[in-house]
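Pasting as-is:
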Amino acid sequence: MNSDKHSQRNNIVPFSNNIESGVVSLPNIVVSTIESKRRVEELQTFVEEVLVKGVDYGLVDGFSKPTLLKPGAEKLCDVFGFSKTADVVNRIEQWESGIFAYEVKMTLIRKDNGLVEAEGLGSCNSRESSFQQQDPYTIVNTVLKMAKKRALIDAVLSATRSSGIFTQDIEDFPQAKTKASKGGGEQVTRAQLQKIFRIVNEMDMPTDVAKELMKMTFGVERSTQLTKKQASDFIQDLLVLKEVRTMDEQNHTD
């Protein structure tokens, strides 16, 4: 009887253990079903009320779950109280042939007790499709940063148990390549570029977020790589996002 009370006090729910019959039982559940549901609900509430669509996470046709972006991963680290360290565990730097590849391990450490909560791995290389039109010697740092970002998102999804809400980074999906091939042949105009920059500035959107949205949708790293048709679509997407954010701000003010 005392043993049962002790298990309940420690929030441990034991499965039946029949050693005499030779049946091997499952491990005990450390967190009760009620507590587990409460944590999931709190996480979902945080996602709905704090994270911003198009900035912290993105939605892609064909996928039921949104993809977690770097700003959203950073916010989750803050709210869960994680510090992070990145280590390059593998690297290839072939300066003669212009091939660069990095594999990064991101470690999330709890600030309250210093224990490691989760580790994530991310890799990136200069031969990926999104880099094929660029000089490999000018994107070395970009490739390394991309590997770090992927490792961060991998670690955050594991540490926060949010893989049921978000998918892994959108760059792993072929969607961007498909849409990029439908952009048309004419190059983006100067007027379109100026309009893109103006809208991004009006929204106070960080440059890396705008680039990530561009890559997520069209598979390009820079606005100058957009076609005229893609630039037009991107402008419309930005205007819609700006309108939604304005409406949200007005609702909060009211």
